[in-house]
Amino acid sequence: MKIAQIAPLYETIPPRLYGGTERVVSHLTEALVEMGHDVTLFASADTQTRARLHPGRECALRLDPAPLKSDLASHLSLLDEVRRRADEFDILHFHTDLLHFPFFEGIAQRTLTTLHGRLDMKDLPDAYRRWPRFPLVSISRSQRQQMPDANWCGTVHHGLDLSAYRFQPRPQGGYLAFLGRISPEKRPDRAIAIATQSGLPLKIAAKVDQSDRSYFEREIRPLLDNPLVEFIGEIGDADKSEFLGNALALLFPIDWPEPFGLVMIEAMACGTPTIAWPCGSVPEVLEDGLTGFIVKSVPQARAAIARLSRLDRRQVRRRFEQRFSAEAMAGHYLELYWQLLGKPAQAALRKKMA
């Protein structure tokens, strides 16, 4: 099958540091190539991939030192290139939210759009109703709640390459981990409270966006004076196995409808359980008492830490392999591709062979 994967241009593929959507696009693309499909990836020129690369920009937007740049202009130029080449592909798989809709309305039936972000925002439901022909994929069932009547054709959980993360059966660090982004909805303040009240070190490996800079300076930086708290900053994939694998647990104390939460399965890949609040996709991703604990308060999180020894880190890794591999993710997407092409027999055959 000839497949176009269209990625956002904000980060490299795969990201050098933070970047959930781009990381998923990378793992999906490489898995499809491994399965023998002819894949073209539309992304920034600094992308690393075994697929055919069509560069849409000389480098990822966040890595571009230019003080003034237009993310809208760069994405519109990329989409125009995809439109010009659309007839070369059986399926066009977009990861750019709804930005492409006005360009591809005439061939919507040959497109698939994975929505990677939150949908509880004003104007979004009206916009998706305006272009109802585009088949949509959710990354969790929870994500659909804000737009239950949209043109959903499937839910595909994220997956990661099994070899990209190193399993650690016995953590060496004796610390708790927070990984991701510093923002109010991610609740790093909760993570700090959990760790300090438990008397355990907390390592924070996180990005601080410019939009969250004032929150970081006002609410979080004063908390970093505690000797139990270490702020590392952003880390890349090369450092994640050691950072997550040597942690007693990942803290995921979110306070928003997280569409998926990639960091939870990154931790699972290392054998590390997660302690998380039951927001958004968390109950779909975590299996309470098996791959982590789902809690509703800081005291409950502290109690969960005392129960971490009951969890089998080998079983945590095993559940990652069974549920969240890149191969499984690619297989689910292939079923949807075949269905959109009107060839359900191939989809059924693939499902039977899986």
TrEMBL record:
This protein's source sits in the domain of life called: Bacteria
- Mind telling me which CDD domains this protein's record contains? GT4_AviGT4-like
Report the InterPro entries cross-referenced here.
Glyco_trans_1, Glyco_trans_4-like_N
Which Pfam families does this chain map to? Answer: Glyco_transf_4, Glycos_transf_1
Fetch the SUPFAM superfamilies from UniProt: UDP-Glycosyltransferase/glycogen phosphorylase
What positions does the domain Glycosyl transferase family occupy?
175-311
Q: Any idea what this protein is called?
A: Glycosyltransferase family 4 protein
